[in-house]
Write a structure and sequence with these properties.
Layout lengths: L1 E10 L2 E9 L3 H17 L16 H4 L3 E8 L2 E9 L5 H5 E3 L3 H4 L6 E9 L10 H18 L4 E7 H9 L5 E2 L3 E3 L8 H4 L6 E7 H12 L13
Helix pairs in contact: 5-8
Length: 230
């Protein structure tokens, strides 16, 4: 992998290194898709019969419209997220809503969409804080976005995750007036139709969320910053 961030945690008296960055081998990308399948099938987000090879992909993967970011420990991928670049983004296709005024100021070629965020426990004996892994994965995605002039974009998140992000005070803007329009033949139809954990469309601005994350990493009560990457 191409390492973007390195995080050292002391867990049960032992130092653990987690690497965050871009998968740069076919094996890493394959393992990432397998992890997505493993987590989405456990949560009953997908129909297993559609993925008999145990590899979760959709049209944005197959059409090479995605950039991937992974978290890795001891050669094992424990988390991933992707950034989609397309003229019309998935949220715009899966929901009907009036485009927020702030988003109208961002040209379509400078927009992206974050999605397929998954994190798996390291082991039953060793607990790694999921929120920290989530934040560092998003930080890598945003760093890439800034380097490639992506000013903002859309996403959709489960209501339970959105509640957690709100508690973390992450600057995410909720699209309040919308109608879900996800098609029955879509890969994530089951994901979109779980009554106890609804899907909510949101929009974000790259600089705004990156500033928030920089503030966390620079907080000496939480982290000791060794360098820009460590």
């Amino acid at each position: 992998m191409k390492i973007m961030k390195e995080l050292q945690l002391k867990v049960n008296g032992e130092n653990k290194l987690i690497y965050f960055g871009v998968p740069n081998s076919e094996d890493e990308i394959l393992d990432m898709h397998k992890l997505r399948y493993e987590i989405y099938s456990k949560k009953d987000y997908i129909d297993k019969e559609r993925f008999k090879d145990g590899i979760e992909k959709d049209e944005y993967d197959l059409d090479k419209k995605s950039h991937y970011f992974i978290a890795k420990i001891e050669d094992r991928i424990i988390g991933s997220v992707r950034l989609i670049r397309d003229y019309y983004l998935p949220t715009e296709k899966d929901f009907k809503f009036e485009e927020p005024e702030e988003m109208k100021n961002i040209p379509r070629e400078l927009r992206g969409e974050a999605g397929r965020l998954v994190i798996t426990p390291y082991s039953k004996e060793v607990y790694l804080p999921r929120n920290i892994i989530l934040l560092f994965l998003i930080d890598c995605l945003l760093e890439f976005s800034m380097e490639n002039n992506i000013a903002g974009g859309y996403s959709f998140v489960k209501s339970i995750l959105l509640s957690k992000l709100n508690k973390l005070k992450m600057p995410i803007h909720i699209i309040k007036n919308y109608v879900q329009d996800y098609q029955k033949d879509g890969v994530l139809y089951k994901y979109f139709n779980q009554e106890d954990d609804q899907v909510i469309p949101v929009y974000i601005f790259t600089n705004e969320v990156k500033k928030y994350l920089n503030g966390l990493v620079d907080n000496r009560k939480m982290f000791e910053k060794i360098s820009e990457k460590k």
